[in-house]
Amino acid sequence: MGRFKKLGIILTSTAFSVGVLSPMAQASANVKEPQERVAIQIASTETKVTKSKLIKQLNTLFPGKFNFVTEKDFSMGQGHYFNDDKTVRYDLSFHKVINNKDVSGGFTFKGEDLELENFYYQPVNIADALYPVKYSESEAQKIAQDFLKKLPNTANYKLREDNINGNFNLSRPLSEPITYSFSYSPTHNGVPLSNQFIDITVLANGEVTSMYRNTESTSKATFDNLDQKKKESDILAQVRENVSIDLRYMIDYNYQTGESIAKLVYTPPTSFSGVHAINGQWQTMHGFTSQVPKTKAVEKLASQPLEPRKKGITLAEVEELAKSFLKVDSDKVKLQLNSVDERENENGETIYSVNYMYESGNRGYGSSFEVNKATGEIISYWDVRREFNEKDGKVEPISKEAALTKAIDYLKEWAPSYIHNYSKPIEDTVYDKQGEQYNFSFPRIVNGIAVVGDEISVGISADGKLSALNVSNRKVDNWPSVNKAVPADKAKATFSKGLKLELQYAKQNGEDNHHYDLVYSPVYNGSLFNSIDATTGEWLQKVDDSKEKPAISHPTAGGELTYLLRQNVLEVKDPAHFNADTAVTKGEALKILVKSLTYGYDYGPYGRDDDTQSFNNIDKKHPLYSIVEQAVRMGILQPANQFAVDTTLTRQELAEWLVRVLKLESAAKHSDIFKLNFADASSIDKAYAGYIALASAMGLIDAQQNKKFNAAEKVTYADLAISTVRLAKAINEENRGRNYYY
């Protein structure tokens, strides 16, 4: 997966996307990537590569792999380059339906040698990537390593152990394929180069399904002498003595549900990203300094709400705004408005998206900008005119202070109703020499503290013009109370204990863009990007201890029980003495089932906090409230007076739950059409007969040794584990996994 999240794709002859780093990456100064990256399509007349040539290159890299895809199935995108990298890229993609299942792939080739820069592949058959898996993680790592060797100039690459890309170990539905991700960085003298990597993803069936490469040539590079570095223990003591932590809100966005969830967190200092390994100076956005960097205080842009720019702006008014806002003073360039689309964003707001193009000679430069219909305010914009405007020599940039004043003035002009909820930048801002602009980030403020992952971004060009504007204002229903935060000194002690250092070579944003400094970068509980849950005092990203969890021994369900334990679905304090033949209660069974089918957003402490209460005895204070309400949303349970949490689950009740998960209850209700092949069929309650018949026919529940179903008997943990794993396979086979389990 790439470093950038695309907020918009521009049609016509130029593709444009505003890239925003993930919340955790934004929280760290370790990330040096630009805030905006523009993809500029080249004219078709300038394209030197054909689709046939790309397919030939693909088949060279993956011999025989994609023989099932014909040339007609492939689509080739127009060549493009980026504003910060003029190397031309070419995209090749395909999508087919095989046996009613989607199979697709996309590939990006870079430069004259058509080097594979990134790709993704969704295979049609992933059954072997579900439990029991075909390949273990160590075997998948060998597959990833072998794939890496096929890529050019990767002999010095080394596997990273620090979760550089922020894999937060979120709960995964068991119906989703098991995926292993590996990140490799280039090294010099065995020391990795920061912010350069190749990510490789391998399914548990052995398929390499994605690769993303973010590297650059070091042929002209110089490096600090490794022999001159200070002792790690001395630098560690320096960081621990000076470390400070900040209380923040962090936004998690669930792309499956479109829901934004706020967490209250303590974040590590973002004012520095490391310590120079030779001279001990602090690494900042401006380079190195001997002074300990401090985070700026919150200062709101406006003390009171300002009036919207234009309430209830009409389509005709948006078109007039576009003509005025986008005009260009040149006879050589023609502005063309292609369309104005109306859509609803994730907040439920109506947005106008204006698609336009500038025609200049035989080239076209297209983009779009967005306007909030309710307020008439611009919420997304990138100035494409900079791509074709002729420059009279090098422009000396205005000062940072003057640029900040300009940025605030532009916000008051184009997005006034938002700014009372935002602060002046609390992170330092540097002038982007390559992009020739300042990129300011104005964080959202809630309950007096900054929100990570929700900000207004403004670009100011060297001559003081508005070059970019993006308003992120996530709709969040519930903000955890600041009063719930554990004491700061307790969180700081946790940071200090979890703090380690990683030696890296880092390139600075100075005049010498080829020298790599030797830097000790802080690693927090095994990750470069990490925070502490302020309500629990625990790390958000925990060290994966699944490998240390012992196996559960059982004659028929040992494998399934161990799998659920290591996937954090089953909670067992003492696996060695766990009796899996114990009857499971309805409450515990429901928790296992829901956790096995969801990503974990809805039943955690930051899950949905609706005003619903489906059962009189399960209110918001009940520990299973979120689980029960999620089960109701999924259709497993029907609202009633009481839910017997502590009552033992029976086999007929489990059959009903399993069938409801598969959305087959309509068929199950017609009990008269089913024939039950059990010795005790005549004694089975007709209300459950259809559910039992379907669950049995699909292999979700087996008859017992006496060939009876024993519908009223207890369900054990072993029984439930086997049925849960089989249910996950059935969901995957039926292609139902993405319908409602989020």
From TrEMBL:
Signal peptide limits: 1-27
Coiled-coil residue windows: none
Domain named SLH: residues: 611-672
Database matches in InterPro entries: SLH_dom, YcdB/YcdC_rep_domain
Record keywords: Signal
Record protein name field: S-layer homology domain-containing protein
The species this protein was found in: Lysinibacillus xylanilyticus
